[in-house]
Amino acid sequence: MARLPSRLEADSSSSSSKNPVGDFEEPPSQFIRMLLQYFLPHASQLGFFLDPDRFYDRALLPLQFGDPHRPSPGLLCVVYLWGIHFSKGTSPPGFSEPDLLHRSRQYISLEISSPVHIEQTIQAQILLGTYLFRNKSLLQAELHSSGAATAILGYRLHQIRSARASTNIFGPLSGSLPKDAVEEGERIRGFWAVTFLQTSLCLTFNENRPFCVLESLGPDIDTPWPLEIADYHAGVLPSDYLGQQSIKHLLLDDSFPASPVCMLQAKASVFLYHVLRLPPGEPPVMVSPKMTSYSWLDTRISQFWQSLPPLHVFSSTADPSGSRSLALAHALIAAAAIKLHQRATASVAAHAQAKSVSAACGILECLRAREGLTVHPVVGALCALACGVLMVEVRTVRGFREAWSASMGTPMTPPTSEENDLVVGIRDGLATMAVYCKESSLMAQQFKLVQEQFESM
């Protein structure tokens, strides 16, 4: 059993005379290996952006807990937390989910002030934020996502490979440049993982939140779009590549060539966030009119959506991670379409509602549940959004039937095939949520609310 080394204890001495987590002991390596094997198959769905093979090898090094050659204590504890969560089995004393949640929070709080590896601290914040998100602690999840965003701002990870000559691309990290292309890729992926988590929380809260990277840094984001870890190993990102204003180019003029799924998910979440935060009324003076134009954004979202590979490109059995990530990209861009169409003016309202219904059906189709499938907690908000759109349409169709019958003085006509199809779609959405809510208290709450709305319809 290994004990936290005195190096980290010294880091915390200024805030506490006694390190409250300095007595943590890891279980045997066989148990750690088992937890990693529970966690890693689901890691990409939870915002894990590091090289999984490197992480696995370093986590199992026969070195003390806290040794700088192993992952940081905060990151290890939150990975162990997820492993215990997925294992659903017995755990050694002091290694329950509540124990590990407590340890994760405290180690991360120590590491924020003096991170040895900033990308590991950001990774720990994302994984802990996602765990809390999944378990209905939304404000705590937001706290950790904001902590990761603050680190991104402080270390200028939004300007990696920036073409702006005056930019110091690693800020305080200039003395700790990435050791190789893979480590640089981890930082790039880490930046976009934070933006995805923050967008997911905004959708779930159904409102703009006080501090989001895409809001605060939007025009200054030059970091390249993320690639898969294997792409960085293969040197796919040219060594002389420089970028500028990634978000602006996505919204205004980028083409949409074949891309890695992680890039598609990142771009879909940016479209969604941009629509969620559109200001009411006239666009601000400093914003391109196109970037807030309903017709322009409708076209751009449609172009991007049509460029996505069909869902069957990835086998759900041979490549379950790729399959789930692609499905999520489809669902996110469909949600962006819905949120845009809900802002439509009266002159195009009927057309916009028809598009919303189509997008809602698309969300429920691509997120169709299978037992034992682990998904990101934003899936609950996506399903709830889609079911809500279909319920609005059912009420509209029924209203027409009622008005027609009243005007003709005849009994209510039977439901049309269109109305029946909508009801079937809602039931399918509820069936999907019923499967996912077994693993998430947040989704259980969302399922209950949608079910109550459906039953009272």
Automatic annotation (TrEMBL):
Annotated segments matching region Disordered: 1-24
This protein's UniProt keywords: Metal-binding, Nucleus, Transcription, Transcription regulation
An annotated GO cellular component: nucleus
Main location per the UniProt record: nucleus
Signal sequence coordinates: none
Biased amino acid composition, Basic and acidic residues: 1-10
Subcellular location: Nucleus
Molecular-function annotations in GO: DNA-binding transcription factor activity, RNA polymerase II-specific; metal ion binding
CDD domains in the record: fungal_TF_MHR
InterPro entries hit by this protein: TF_fung
PANTHER family: ZN(2)-C6 FUNGAL-TYPE DOMAIN-CONTAINING PROTEIN, ZN(II)2CYS6 TRANSCRIPTION FACTOR (EUROFUNG)-RELATED
Protein name listed in UniProt: Transcription factor domain-containing protein
